[in-house]
Design brief:
This protein has 415 residues and is of the alpha/beta class. It has 14 helices and 14 strands. A seven-stranded mixed sheet has the order 4-10-9-8-7-5-6, sandwiched between helices. The structure holds 4'-deoxy-4'-aminopyridoxal-5'-phosphate. Homodimer.
């Protein structure tokens, strides 16, 4: 370690600089602590807590993005077990060199069908699919201007930055502002509008049809991140674009296999020429090992299941509505959300962490605090994601515990 400290002729003590960066996070209450937890298969949302915060009682998970508990679903687990025994653990390479398997091909066909597009392309995560696709599109279209919603996810922002083209940020879901920015741009410049359907920290939804109208008027391509909506909305789980009947108006739909689908991986769905050009030019696709076929097999089973089954979506929506209503009835600061996400405004990082600590230690309720930079400073919150197996009694327990904890003063941070 010592040789990482100040070196001859260098004016900086490397380790002291890293230490100070971590210290700043502690001071602001933003230092992240990972909870050492294991879910119990077949018993979701119950889990066990280990490590420093070990608890003898079971913990109820309230912040998982496995929104529909598909990560625990027997059909998904059976498909993964079968694939593991059939073909082994890893894919063995990039898609170009040894890492293309029948599971990848079948999953891409299933995802294309889900969104009513000609084709789909898999990536190792939703983050990578956004970064790789947006960066590559921007580079392939000389003079392109990318119009981006101000609340877009970090992975879209990274892709837009790496595209190296001009960008214009429009106020969140503000169509008048987007129209103004489009009208002010060079009419001859290629344009792309990048936005999300469900905004995961607010729980609100983009006006997709209105954005498509503007895109048509100004000759722009559209890029929609449906990460928090795939599996959750639409008759077959095709997202908000399916629910609103506008999937065919979008140039590219992007999604993850890691949230409602319950496994891991990301993808885009679009015309064949678009997936072909990304497949052929995007470093984030070309130069990395493809998903394990075991993951692809699990995701395939999950997507197929959710195409034919609405019960998970219905139970989840019911639980979310119930939790919002009960938070509101208890006079707790639940933020307005028109989706499955239930955010509770706390307003500062230190309190958010203290509430989260108290809920875990004193009540066995697990919800991670959400701080800057994930949300703006002053809007720190707890973000609850009830699933289809959170029942009314669990919701009552949670609401009572949050009321008690928020009623206490002063709140203390756990060591
Ligand atoms: N887009 C959005 C809107 C997200 O919230 C996330 C993850 N939280 C991602 C993309 C990245 O997806 P993944 O977790 O599959 O990398």
């Amino acid at each position: 370690m010592d040789d990482l400290r100040a070196r001859d002729g260098v004016a900086m003590d490397y380790m002291a600089t890293f230490g100070a960066a971590i210290e700043r996070l502690h001071d602001e209450g933003r230092y992240r602590v990972f909870i050492d937890i294991l879910r119990n298969k077949g018993n979701y949302p119950n889990a066990r807590c280990f490590g420093q915060r070990a608890l003898s009682r079971p913990v109820t998970v309230w912040c998982s993005n496995d929104y529909l508990a598909m990560g625990q679903h027997p059909a998904v687990i059976a498909a993964m077990e079968e694939a593991l025994h059939d073909v082994g653990a890893g894919s063995g390479g990039t898609r170009n060199i040894g890492g293309n398997t029948h599971y990848h091909v079948a999953l891409e066909a299933e995802l294309a069908d889900l969104h009513g597009k000609e084709s789909a392309l898999l990536f190792t995560s939703g983050y990578v699919s956004n970064e790789a696709t947006l960066a590559t599109l921007g580079k392939l279209l000389p003079g392109c201007i990318i119009f981006s919603d101000e609340l877009n996810h970090a992975s879209m922002i990274a892709g837009i930055r790496n595209a190296g083209c001009e960008r214009r940020i429009f106020r969140h879901n503000d169509m008048a502002h987007l129209e103004e920015l489009l009208a002010a741009a060079d009419p001859a410049a290629p344009k792309l509008i990048a936005f999300e359907s469900v905004y995961s920290m607010e729980g609100d939804v983009a006006p997709i049809a209105a954005i498509c109208d503007l895109a048509d008027r100004f000759g722009a391509l559209t890029y929609l991140d449906e990460v928090h909506a795939v599996g959750m909305y639409g008759e077959r789980g095709g997202g908000i674009s399916e629910r609103d009947g506008v999937a065919d108006r979008l140039t590219i739909i992007e999604g993850t296999l890691a949230k409602a689908i319950g496994v891991m991986g990301g993808y885009i769905a679009a015309d064949r020429l678009i997936t072909d050009v990304i497949r052929s030019y995007a470093p984030g696709f070309i130069f990395t090992t493809s998903l394990s076929p075991v993951l692809a097999a699990g995701a395939l089973a999950s997507v197929r299941h959710l195409k034919g089954s609405s019960i998970e979506r219905e139970c989840q929506q019911q639980a979310a509505a119930d939790l919002k209503a009960k938070f509101a009835a208890a006079d707790l600061p639940v933020m307005s959300s028109t989706t499955h996400i239930v955010p509770l405004l706390i307003g500062d990082a230190i309190t958010a962490k203290a509430v989260s600590d108290a809920l875990l230690q004193d009540y066995g309720l697990y919800v991670q605090p959400i701080n800057f930079p994930t949300v703006p400073r002053g809007t720190e919150r707890l973000r609850f994601t009830p699933g289809p197996t959170h029942d009314a009694a669990m919701i009552d327990t949670l609401v009572a515990a949050v009321s008690e904890v928020l009623g206490r003063a002063p709140l203390r941070l756990a060591a």
